[in-house]
Amino acid sequence: MNTKCNKWLLTLAVAAVAAAVSGPTAAQAPAESPAPGADTQANAPADMNTTVHLIRLLVSQGVITVAQGEALLMQAQEEVRQAAQGDAGPDVREDDVRVPYIPEVVLEEIREEVKEDVMAKAKAENWAAPNTFPDWVSRIKVYGDVRVRNESRFFSGDNSNEITDFHEMNESGPHDVNSKTAVSLPPLMNTREDRENLLRIRARFGLEAALSDNWDAGVRLATGSSNGPVSTTQTLGGGLGKKDIWLDQAWVSWHPGIWNFTAGRAENPFVSTDILYDGDLNFDGVSAGFSGLDFSDNGSVFGTFGAFPLQYSDDDWPSNQKDKGDSEDRWLLGAQLGVDWEFDNGDGFKTALAYYNFDNVRGQRSSECYLYAAAPPCDSDWSVPAFMQKGNTVFLLRDIQLDPANPALTPLPQYVGLASEFELLDLNARWNTSLFNGYKLQLAGNYIYNLAYDEDEMWENADGQLISNFDSNTGELESGREAWMLHAAFGSSLDLRHAGEWLAFMGYKYIEPDALPDAYNDSTFHLGGTNAKGYYLGGSYALNENLYFRGRWMSSEEVYGPPLAIDVLQFELNAQF
User: Considering just the CA atoms, what is the radius of gyration of the chain in Å?
Assistant: First the structure.
């Protein structure tokens, strides 16, 4: 037994001896002194019984020896005998009981030492109480959410039916663009046939672990129809087949003081809207941020910096050549600085300005390549985008030379690349306030400007081979560098934490073709991408603190080019745990 336990047992023994000594004056002494191991229940007074039990416990635990126990017991019996025979004094009646006084400080010390000793032993052996768990369980947080959605997509009958799906063209390509040798049309989008009542789900399950006071790690799994970056939604059906699960997040975070450093695949660290980054988008790479740097009683500054690899070039490209291509990695570099005001009346205002450099994402026109002569592959195939939705201006990457023996019938298998560079300024502002009867109002805005947009440079880099977002009659580019949105929400709550709370919202989006990369923004408005404008509206209602219903209507059309009007209607249940 440890020292603390020995100490409190010995203290209790001394107290018990004192109690026996100070017991009733009429107490009878036992005939003989029993040994510490003998049965004294039948012939000993109640106080002596307690003393005997305590001394026996001290002996059994090795705190004192048997001889010491016998001596202690004999001493207690002798003092009890003397007390019984002595004069109680003029102020003491025979039925009075003397109780030894133990200071409260000593009692509290005993209690704390016993508590610490018992709890330490309980943690080590997991026996303190039923349904208790090991220490690591208290450091793990398990969470998740499930969404069931009914989605309908409505297309105008006036839409063009000749809009190429350039992502699919790259994925399944290269595609022969020579109409005289091509055996099929390029992949074309559905632009006229409605798709009603698609039942879709999203499920995410994650855990976070506290490694120490300022180190955490997390992992999350999610559904998804593909490994595309902007959606974890899975369409049901498929012959009742099982659904795919993907690694959605995996990160380690260090947060000393006001700073937070994260490495791995984690949630979007920037203040942004889905006009630029879809809500399901996660970021691969490293980020550092700070918050809560006060400059007044109501205002504070926050900031975020990050570097995120978008695509690494293949180590062995081209695989059938001794000389390998240069490293052509692509990165997203971002920096954001913002201010957050929390006013005394509960209102809040947040604004943030960010700069994003999508480095090396623009496609490169190849040098001359002679595919008809079984020459090496064209040297700019590496610049095919890893993922696209739709809207950005694209051009033909390969400079394929014609076969002199039959130039008109030379196949021209092509990939496409992005025509513009992207260096974005992103300004966000958000204001929350309370109105009459406790109702909440939120007004928000987002403005994006592509500093790197340059039409002359786009034509020059593409060697005149632009194939989207231009008027074939005039030869003029129909694109732009700006995007913006306005959003308003009104209701009993903005976060729907309790049953019966509701929220109504509406907004408008305007996104020119090359204002931002079309790969990463909201995948539902206009079914993803850029070159879109239109409105959305909807509402949410909380069924309880972990379940809410939402309905949303989105109506959009193209900004430039062939007609493409798309309406989307969604009804969904969202559960979280």
Answer: 39
